[in-house]
Amino acid sequence: MPVFRLFAPAILGAALCGAVLPATAAPLAAAVPGQPGARPGATAAELARWKKTAEQVTIMRDKWGIPHVFGKTDADAVFGLLYAQAEDDFNRVELNYINAMGRLAEVEGEQAIWRDLRMKMYITPADLQARYAASPAWLRQLMDGFADGLNYYLHTHPEVKPRLISRFEPWMALSFSEGSIGGDIESIDLKELEAFYSKPRTAATSSARSAAPVKQLDAEPRGSNGFAIAPKLSASGNALLLINPHTSFYFRPEVHMVSEQGLNAYGAVTWGQFFIYQGFNEKTGWMHTSGGGDVIDEYLETVRERGGKLYYRYGEQERLMKSRTVRLPYKTPSGAMASKTVTAYFTHHGPVVREQGGKWVSVKMMDEPLKALIQSYTRTKARDYSDFYKTMELRTNSSNNTVYADAKGNIAYFHGNFIPKRDPRFNWSQPVDGSLPATEWQGLHAIKDTITLLNPASGYISNTNNWPFSASGPSSPRRQDYPDYMWSLPENARGRHAERVLGDAGGFTLESLIAAAYDSHLTAFEPLLPQLLQDHDALPAADPRKAALAAQLAALRGWDLRSGVGSVPTSLAVYWGQELLAQHAPRARAAGVPTVDFITASLTANERLDALARASDKLVADFGSWQTPWGEINRFQRISGEIDQQYDDSKPSWPVGFASANWGSLASFGMVAKQKTKRIYGDRGNSFVAVVEFGPRLRAKSILAGGNSNNPASKHFADQAEMYSRGEFKDVLFYKEDIEKQLGRKYHPGQ
Residue 732's closest CA among 358, 161, 243? Predict the structure, then answer.
């Protein structure tokens, strides 16, 4: 799923009919905080408050540039954390909030207005301001610290020119209150949204579409791996945790935040947020993997017009369709501002986002930004399983599973967290009839009734964005015990790989857990390759492919299915697999089957053999020989701080031995951007990776893609790149005395 995540507020606005109005070159309304224009100056009171807070915050950057932020209060630590994030990559911090508030078109142009509409159908500044005002005092203090830290950074760095947000407000934190890379809102298809709202709407308007958009199940995996090891399987008798998110590179930096109020959290933070999203404190650790239960539902609404107003059927009655006028400013090619206006429609289920078979489709999803922010922050301070479970009872982590371990030796797993109760008679994987009261959500499942594990007898837990029924070998949950809507993704090649490296192992240390997480076997080729070998063996001698592919098949026949920088068969197999994916992805999507599963079960011998010939030809064309080692092709490169990374075969890069998660590689390294080079340059997969041992004194190791700074002039821009490419970890400096020994710089914000 794409990067950003939001939650829907209450539906506002009076009933109006209409659609997109003509663009206008009229200027924006009078400036408000966050609109483009001159940077507002700080008042004397604000500046005094910022300086006082800064004096209570110490940032210690270690030899890797990782900020260890120490504050007297939690709010002080938040202030310092946001200041440090802005130092490392203000651009990403700002862009996350530009997107989260539905203002991307104001900096990127008219092509982004439908993404902005999608956001603005769910959030309004007035609603977020009201939620901020209703927040508990301790949370308002954190949100105040968030805004103050960023505003103090801008005040002390006048050379930094924001693209749009020249002043941050505390309530903005509620627009981006959970850090997952898979946002619920991203399930709304932008092309469908544009098709619905870009032309005048009446109840009689019909669409040719008769089915729901097909899910894309074969993209480069945007997931994660999480492993938890019980004391009985560890060499030390302590619980261990693997934190291995597979995200776009540079999506989260590595940070540490400490206060005198019990905060001491280390891990990965999504740019612009003030809580550690995946990480650990001295007593507990948590790893989120995307792909829990089915948490979003579409409703088919029967709409008709009566007396100039729109109504939709519900039960034996008709309800008035609500609407709200949404203004969508955008930057024109000349740099001037223009805008479009859309009338957005809402049923009690949620916003209308498309049309299907003559019915309007509304979407229902979680709407709890305040509770989500509370849960995201309070879990970082949990001291044991009981504390952590209490945070889970808020039930607002809708898109993720959680793998957990703690210093008392507990390991646990939560498959999803926010799981609506539904009538199991309906197929919730498809749109349901919105006129039937029986299709309403019936509250939320209690945590105890969802798919969970606590201290399984097998001694281990894993999740790789797969189903939960192989999470712990023979101790796994049983599929028949739960409704289908409690899980959404099938088993995958990484899940089978994880079971193999964990199922028969024991005596784990941090080092052997890293080795397991980087095991090089590519399990997806286990069923694929024998088919190809059999296909070639069955060719008659007169078939030209018999001789033309003989050498390639000999190389693959002798392959141990392990990737590595020196492996020629890895190059050939991956290019073959890529050819199969590219050729057959449309058929797989139409069938609703993951493409790797489809190419394994549904292809002919000719399709497999011809794909190998094309793969071999491509390797020859790009590299001069199909016998090119994988490390010559698969590279890590970081040559700019731009969000839209560009790659260059003529510039320095590092060889990477692991491969795309599609092929079962636990250590994931794949390319999502359109390939414009001959070499493959990874941009998604292993990003921040850590292993943690919860003993009397915490031990941990970590690695980050590239480095912690986004400034190419910084020594921390790529100081971890070579280690990253080899899967080599650094020691985490968790204790202050250890940080002091490897200190790079110590300062107060503003110095």
Answer: 243
DSSP string over 656-678: -----GGGT-SS-EE--SPP-SS
Q: How far is 75 from 173, CA to CA, in rounded Å? A: 13
Count of residues making up the chain: 751
Sorted by sequence, the CB contacts under 8 Å of residue 448 that are 6+ apart come out as none
How far apart are the C-alpha atoms of 405 and 281, rounded to whole Å? Answer: 11
The least confident of 159-163, 220-224, 509-513 is 220-224
Residue 53: other Cβ atoms inside 10 A: 26
User: Over the chain, what is the mean pLDDT?
Assistant: 92
Give pTM, 2 decimals. Answer: 0.92
Closest CA to 575 of 533, 605, 617, 546: 617
Kindly report, residue by residue over 453-470, the tens digit of the pLDDT: 999 999 999 999 999 999
- The answer to whether 603 and 614 have CB atoms below 8 angstroms apart is no
Q: What is the pLDDT of residues 246-283, one digit of tens each?
A: 999 999 999 999 999 999 999 999 999 999 999 999 99
**Confidence bin at 162 (pLDDT 50/70/90):** very high
Please give the DSSP secondary-structure letter assigned to residue 243: E
Task: Give the pLDDT of residue 180.
Answer: 64
Q: How many CA atoms lie within 13 A of 349 on its CB side?
A: 28
3-state secondary structure of 560: coil
Q: What's the CA gap between 19 and 2, in Å, rounded? A: 27
pLDDT score for 177: 87
Proportion of the chain in helix, strand, coil states, percent, rounded to 5? 35, 20, 45
Q: How many helices (H) and strands (E) does the chain have?
A: 20, 30
Would you call 468 helix, strand, or coil by DSSP?
helix
HSE-CB at 352 with a 13 A cutoff on CA atoms is 31
Strand 337-346 to 352-356 pairing: unpaired
Contact 260, 73 (CB under 8 A): yes
For 61-72, the DSSP string reads EETT--EEEEES
3-state secondary structure at position 289: strand
pLDDT band at 183 (very low <50, low <70, confident <90, very high): low
What are the φ and ψ backbone dihedral angles of 436, each rounded to 5 degrees? -95, 115
Distance CA 579, CA 620 (A): 15
H/E run at residue 725: helix 721-726
Give yes or no for a contact between 123 and 6, defined as CB atoms under 8 angstroms apart.
yes
Q: 439, 426 in Cβ contact below 8 A?
A: yes
Q: What is the four-CA torsion angle of 286, 96, 249, 747, rounded to 10 degrees?
A: -80
Q: 10: helix, coil or strand?
A: coil
Query: pLDDT tens for residues 387-404?
Result: 999 999 999 999 899 999
Query: Left if phi > 0, otherwise alpha if psi is -120 to 50, otherwise beta: which for 358?
Result: left
pLDDT band, very low/low/confident/very high, at 291 (cuts 50, 70, 90):
confident
Cβ atoms of residues 637 and 651 within 8 Å: yes
Q: Report the pLDDT value the prediction gives residue 10, as an integer from 0 to 100.
A: 28
Give the DSSP letter string of 482-534: S-GGG------HHHHHHHHHHHT--SB-HHHHHHHHT--B-TTHHHHHHHHHH
Strand, coil or helix: 190: helix
Which residue intervals of 66-136 are DSSP H helices?
Answer: 74-100, 105-108, 113-120, 125-133
Are the beta carbons of 220 and 671 closer than 8 angstroms? yes
Token pair for residue 405? 């371990």
Amino acid code (one letter) for 197 = Y
